[in-house]
Every structure is written in structure tokens, then in C-alpha cells.
Amino acid sequence: MTNDTAAAKRIVVGVDGSPCSILALQRARPIADASQWEIDAVAAWQYPSYLGAGIVGELHPDDDARKFLHDAVEAAFGSDRPEGLEEIVTHGYPSQVLIEASAEAEMLVVGSRGHGGFVGLLLGSVSGQCAEHAQCPVLVVHSGDHH
């Protein structure tokens, strides 16, 4: 997610800390290794629309996102992190952030279901939006992929 044209080619992986997003990180690695690309693990957060102004001041979503992103990377790779992996936390709607990041990526990898409000959907709203609107190839990882 850099504007430097000499920068390494990247795979962007959407991470929300869910099992599907951890699998997405794991599926991105062999592709990145084979292609000599690097991985941007991206966590985006947005205040839920139902929160009142008084509650918002007590939340620390940036810190929370940074922790769940770090924990997800740790769960996916342990101490054997891919070279060049970057953990990126940003404020914004996850689908919008990932679609924008896809403009500079070789591939976008997302889980089919995450920690969204409609966990029972077969294809989550973020992965569906990314599959439809991304500016690069998209790999949607399903929870059954770990079998």
C-alpha cells in the first residue's frame, strides 16, 4: 500500500482476527513466496453506527485492531513470519479499504466470513464487495479450506 513505483509487488490480505482471515494469511504465503511478492496484512476498523458519542470516547479501536492483527499474524505464522510482511491498521470500512488497496496489489486475499454482523452468510459482505469491485485478482478463502 505504497505509492513508490519501485516497491516490491504485494499481496493484500484482509484480516479481522477470524479463523477465515488467519487462513487467508496462510493461503497468501505460498503465492507470495512463489511469486517473490510481499504481504500486507490489513486490518480496517470503523465505529459501529449504533454507538453514541459518549461511548466512542471510551473505545480504542485502533489499539484493538493492532492487537487482533498482530495475534492473527502470530497464529498464522508463529515465529516464521514471511519476509517483508507488513501489518497495516487503518480507519475505514473494511471493504472500501481493501478495494482501494487492491489498486496497488497483485492479488487480494480475504476470508469468506469474518467477524461481521451476519456470521451465517456463506459469502460475507466484505468478501463479496471485494470480489466484485477489486482492481486485482481476488482469492476468497472458505473456512472449510483448512481440511
Characterise the protein shown here.
With 147 residues, the protein is α/β, with parallel strands linked by helices. Helices cover 38% and strands 19% of the residues. It contains five helices and five strands. It has a five-stranded parallel β-sheet, with helices on both faces. Helix 1 links the parallel strand 1 and strand 2. Helix 1 crosses helix 3 and helix 4 packs parallel to helix 5. The longest helix is centred in the first third of the chain and has 17 residues. About 5% of the residues have low confidence.
**Which stretches of 5+ consecutive residues score pLDDT under 50?**
116-123
- Strand tally is 5
The main sheet comes to:
5 strands, parallel
Report the total helices: 5
Distance between the termini: 32 Å
Helix-strand topology string: EHEHHEHEHE
Q: What keyword list fits this structure?
A:
single chain; alpha/beta; five-stranded parallel β-sheet; 5 helices; globular
In short:
This protein starts with 9 loop residues before the first strand and ends in a 6-residue tail after the last strand. It has a five-stranded parallel sheet, sandwiched between helices.
